[in-house]
Design brief:
Pathway: Cofactor biosynthesis; adenosylcobalamin biosynthesis. Catalyzes amidations at positions B, D, E, and G on adenosylcobyrinic A,C-diamide. NH(2) groups are provided by glutamine, and one molecule of ATP is hydrogenolyzed for each amidation. It comes from Actinomycetospora succinea. Residues 18-243 form the CobQ/CobB/MinD/ParA nucleotide binding domain. This protein has 525 residues and is an alpha/beta fold. It has two domains: 15-51 and 120-243 and 480-524, Rossmann fold, CATH 3.40.50; 266-469, Rossmann fold, CATH 3.40.50.880. The chain has an eight-stranded mixed beta sheet with strand order 13-14-17-15-18-20-30-29. A six-stranded parallel beta sheet has the order 2-9-1-10-11-12, sandwiched between helices. A four-stranded mixed beta sheet has the order 3-6-7-8, covered by helices on one side. Strand 27 and strand 28 (429-430) form a beta hairpin. Helix 3 (113-137) packs across helix 4 (162-168) and helix 5 packs parallel to helix 7 (214-228). The protein is globular, with a radius of gyration of 24 Å. The relative contact order is 0.13.
Length: 525
């Protein structure tokens, strides 16, 4: 294996690999990030790719589009800026049955599950062409599947798993989360339900989140190889230090707590409550808060959790009006209002900012039925939803500090009283700073270290806490350390020689097919 920080091996590494999973949230996103980081540290020109992502966590790219946040994180692992090429199809769920479709960074309508199937053939051409473009520009492309390839009811129109692997002739490794239980059956079953041509591309297994005695797992892995003819390429251990950005599942949250903060500077912890809206969007905005020593960040879904919070955050939402209705029905709206009227800080980001205003106008039915609803009335602002989505990566100042961020929203604000929270380069005001209640459309604002420290200092002063923000916390450095941890886990626990052979040579010829009633039926259907 190649050591950390070593130069590229004499033999140039080129090729492509698809990482599939036994389930959603099996660890595909972080494994791809880890493989990308391992290769990047060896000097390999590597890029990430996810043909189709379904996520309300997204970022704006330098080329003016929108992609899933996981692919932006994977790009950072490669030392690359985000690009629409890394995620050509993004589905942003608005309800349980409909999603906004973003194709190569641009909104391209709204679909139901049924109508989306009709678009898959054309979208397969888009993703295959985009992957070919990436492969021409980079030595290695590490692809991430979506959900599970064992969803055989969706195989005929699949563009992200075996459909992509077959179209582009990609070797596939399958990762399973042992922490869920039944991982050996999940791995075997994933292969068994596939038709032989798909099985021929599945070349190995990776077990994720293992904790325990490896000797107890080894016989099971030996039997899995005997049954399938495919090796386990490694077992990744459970790592409590790993809390890096996840998808909409908020998989990095343990018992509602975000991150693993160090002890505070001073006697007191600062407590942050983030309302977990049903259609939360870009909830990873608050990850930067949890990187600060002494800041305890917790997702909450009921009013009592706000009682002892020093700062309440209303995050973004894909369906602002519907989530505002939910906020009222749960009693959280009253709790947020009481918190603000007691002089305690409240921060609203994007959809959360819109909820804090006086009214939300949706004349074109962007979210649902056209109309106007009352907000919480905590900020003197009204928002009107435009049909066109506003995307941008502006810079400016906030709370006297230079900031960079990104915007993804339909809402156009009409500000009344209150100073702007952000002043864009050129002097345009954005958001509202009403002292203890603040709102902005800016995503990623809290990743600006100096601004984050000012906000936390203000919250600590309002709460009378003996808390001082750490003067040297760098969120970029924290994120880089998390990516290096992923790279270390890959390097130390996977058979990287075998992994590199798969990338360069593809799936070995002659991998045996698993003959099952289901597999035979799939092959002849």
């Amino acid at each position: 294996m190649t050591g950390r920080g070593a130069q590229r091996s004499r033999t140039r590494t080129t090729g492509t690999l698809l990482v599939a999973g036994t389930t959603s949230d099996a660890g595909k996103s972080v494994l791809v990030a880890g493989i990308c980081r391992w290769l990047h540290r060896r000097g390999v020109d590597v890029a990430p790719f996810k043909a189709q992502n379904m996520s309300n966590n997204s970022v704006v790219t330098g080329d003016g589009g929108e992609i899933g946040r996981a692919q932006a994180l994977q790009a950072a692992a490669c030392g690359l800026a985000p690009s629409v090429l890394f995620n050509p199809v993004l589905l942003k769920p608005g309800t349980d049955r409909s999603s906004q479709v973003v194709v190569r960074g641009v909104v391209d309508g709204t679909v139901s599950a049924a109508s989306y199937r009709e678009r898959k053939a054309a979208l397969l051409e888009v993703v295959v062409d985009t992957l070919a473009e990436l492969r021409a520009a980079h030595d290695v492309v590490i692809c991430e599947g979506a959900g599970s390839p064992a969803e055989i009811n969706l195989r005929a129109t699949d563009i992200a798993n075996m459909g992509l692997a077959r179209a582009a002739d990609l070797p596939v490794v399958v990762v399973g989360d042992i922490d869920r239980g039944g991982v050996l059956a999940h791995l075997f079953g994933t292969l068994a339900v596939l038709e032989p041509a798909d099985q021929a591309l599945v070349a190995g297994w990776i077990v994720n989140k293992f904790r325990g005695d490896p000797a107890l797992l080894a016989p099971g892995l030996d039997q899995l190889r005997a049954l399938t003819g495919r090796p386990t390429l490694g077992v990744l251990p459970w790592s409590p230090e790993l809390w890096i950005d996840a998808e909409d599942s908020l998989g990095h949250v343990a018992d509602g707590v975000v991150g693993r903060p160090a002890p505070p500077h001073g006697r007191d912890w600062l407590r942050v409550a983030v309302v977990r809206l049903p259609r939360v969007s870009n909830g990873t905005d608050v990850d930067a808060l949890s990187s600060e020593p002494g800041v305890a960040v917790r997702w909450v879904t009921e009013p009592s959790r706000l009682a002892d919070a020093d700062l309440v955050v209303l995050p973004g939402s894909k369906t602002t009006v519907a989530d505002l209705v939910w906020l009222r029905s749960t009693g959280l709206a009253d709790a947020v209002t009481a918190h603000a009227r007691a002089g305690k800080p409240v921060l609203g980001v994007c959809g959360g900012y819109q909820m804090l205003g006086r009214r939300i106008h949706d004349p074109h039915g962007v979210e649902a039925t056209p109309g106007t609803v009352d907000g919480l009335g905590l900020l003197d602002v009204e928002v009107t939803f435009d049909v066109a989505k506003h995307l941008g990566t502006p810079t400016g100042t906030a709370l006297g500090e230079p900031v960079a961020f990104y915007e993804i929203h339909h809402g156009r604000e009409l500000r009344g009283a209150g100073a702007p929270l952000v002043t864009l380069a050129g002097g345009t005001p954005e958001g509202v700073d009403a002292g203890h209640v603040l709102g902005t459309h800016a995503h990623g604002l809290l990743e600006n270290d100096a601004l984050r420290r000012r906000l936390l200092g203000r919250a600590a002063a309002a709460a009378g806490r003996d808390f001082t923000p750490a003067p040297d916390t760098s969120y970029a450095a924290v994120r880089a350390a998390q990516l290096d941890l992923l790279g270390d886990l890959v390097e130390k626990n996977l058979d990287t020689d075998a992994l590199e052979r798969l990338i360069t040579d593809g799936a070995p010829a002659g991998l045996p097919a698993i003959q099952t009633t289901i597999g035979q039926a799939r092959a002849t259907s």
